[in-house]
Amino acid sequence: MPLNYSKWDQLELSDDSDIEGHPNVDKRSLIRWKQRDIHEKREARKHRIVALQAEIACNNVLAPRLSRIRGRFVGDAPGDGGADTQTEWAEDFEGIRTLTGLPFFQALVERLQTSPSSAAPPTNAKDQPTYDGMVLSLLLQIYDGAKPLPSDEQEKTLLGGLDRHIAQLAEHTQKLEKDLAVELREQKKHITSDDIKEGFENKYVPPKPAPPPIKNTVADTSNKKTKKTTTTYEVLNPEASSSTSVSPPVESATASSVSPASADDDDENEATELPELTPALARFSRIALWNYEASFSFIQQNCEVVVPGASDALLVAAFQAESAGNAKHAKQCVHQSLLLQYCDKLGRDGVRIFFQKMISGEKRAISVFVKDVEDTYAHLATRAKAAAASTPAQKEQIQLVPENPNSTISFNVPDGPPPDDLRLEGPGTEDLDIEEVRRALTMRWQVFESFPEPLRAALREGTLENVNRVLGDMEVSQAEDIVSKLDMAGIMNFAEGGVRDETGQAKDNEE
C-alpha cells in the first residue's frame, strides 16, 4: 500500500533553505522576520474570519426583518414573527402589525424610537448598535428621501427604498460569504497548531481491587498446615563420624504436616467471633424470596456481596433472626446464603449461569433450589428452638458494687431492739437526744426484721457475695426497695457514699 505524504506539503516553515535575502543581513534575522510575518498574517486572517462570520450572522437577522417590514407595508406579510420566535420585534407588535402603508411605516419608526429592543449581535465591540437601532437608522435614511415628496408619492418612494436596501443587503451578504470561503480556504492551505487534534488516546485504567472477605470468616486451615521432614544418615561408627564434618540434613520442600500438639495450638488461636453482615449484605438479605431479578441486579451493582464468608454471615444472621422470632427475615437470609453458595459452586461464571437458569424459569433447577431452601430453613429453625430450650432465660438483677474498687461495702446488722435502759457513752454523745437515738435504733431493727429470712442470714454473715446472690434471686422492684431500706436504715456502710446497681440493662443509678 503506497503511503501518501501530500499532507506534509502544507507545512509552512520559517527556515526554508530557499530564502533569499540581502548579503548584509544575516540569515537568522531573516528567519525570525519571516516567522513573525507568518504569525502576524495568521492572526490577521483569524480576525478577518471572525469579523466576516459576525457580519454574516447579523445580516441573516436583518434581512428577514426587512422582508417582513416590506410585506407588512404592502399588506401581504405573514402574521407570525418569522423564523426568530424568541424575540418580539417592533414590527410584530399588536398595535402595529394591523396597519399598512405610510401609517405602518410611521408607527414602526415611533415604536423603534420609544421602545427599542436590547437584542444586539454577540460581539465585544464597544458601543455595539442593537438590531432595532440598525433598522431604525435604515428606515430614517429611506424616509429622509421620501419626506419632501407629496403624500401620494411617499409610499411608492418608501417601498422602492426598502426594495433597494433589501437587494443591496443580499448582494453584500453574498460577497461576505465568498470572502469568508476564500479566507477559510487560505487558512486550510497550511498546517498549524490549531489543526492538531487528538485522534485516540490509550490510558491504562487499573481494575477495581477485589472486595475483602467477610470479617471473622472461618478459613480452610487444611492448606495452612505444613509438614517438615528431615533426612538423617545411619552410620556404622557414630563416634568416628562425630569427629568428622557431616553435611547438614536435607529438608524436604514438598511435604506438609505438623505435630498434633501444634495443630491443637493453632485451633485454639482461631478467631472465636462469628462472621458479621456488612451493610451491603444487610441490604442484600432484605430482598424478597424468589425475586431472582432483584438479587441479580443487586449483585451486579454491589460486587462486595460475592466474597468469601458472605454465605456464612447470612446463615449466622438467619439463626439470630430465627432466635429473635423473626422467621420471615431468617428465611430470606437462608435464601440469599444458598443463592451465593450455588453461584460459587457453578464455577467462575457461576453468577451468570445460576441467574440465567432461574430467571428463564427452568423448572428442574428451580425445584432443586426451592427444596434446598426449605430444608435448610427447617433445619435451622429446629436448631434455633433446641438452642433456646437449652439456654436458661436471663433475668434482670440488682447487684451491689462499690464505685471505687479500693473501697468495700460492709453491713451493720442490729442484734435486737434497743434496751429500756439505753445509755449513750463516749465523746460527742453529750448533744444527742436519747429518745431520737432510741427511735432510730428501733426503726433499724424493724427494717431488718421486715427482710426475708435468706437476706437476714446473708446480712448476718456480712459478705457482699451472699447478699448479691440473694438480691439476684429477687424481682428487680423488690431488690431496689430492699437496697433503699438498707441505705436508709444505716445497715449498709460504704467508704465513699456511692453504690452502683449493675443490671442487665446497664443501669447506673446511684443509691
Uncertain stretches of 5 or more adjacent residues: 79-85, 220-226, 241-271, 497-511
Largest sheet entry: 2 strands, antiparallel
Strand fraction band?
A: under 5%
N-to-C CA distance: 100 Å
Overall mean pLDDT: 77
- Radius of gyration, rounded? 51 Å
Strand order of the largest sheet: 1-4
State the order of secondary-structure elements, H for helix, E for strand: HHHHHHHHHHHHEEHHHHEE
**Count the strands?**
4
Please count the helical segments.
16
What is the molecular shape? elongated
Which structural class best describes the helix and strand composition?
mainly alpha
Helix content estimate = 40-55%
Describe the fold and architecture.
With 511 residues, this protein is mostly helical. Helices cover 52% and strands 2% of the residues. It contains 16 helices and 4 strands. The protein has helices at residues 27-74, 101-114, 131-146, 151-187, 238-243, 260-268, 279-284, 292-301, 310-323, 327-345, 350-360, 363-390, 434-450, 453-461, 464-472, 476-489; strands at 400-402, 409-411, 492-494, 499-501. The longest helix is centred in the first third of the chain and has 48 residues, at 27-74.
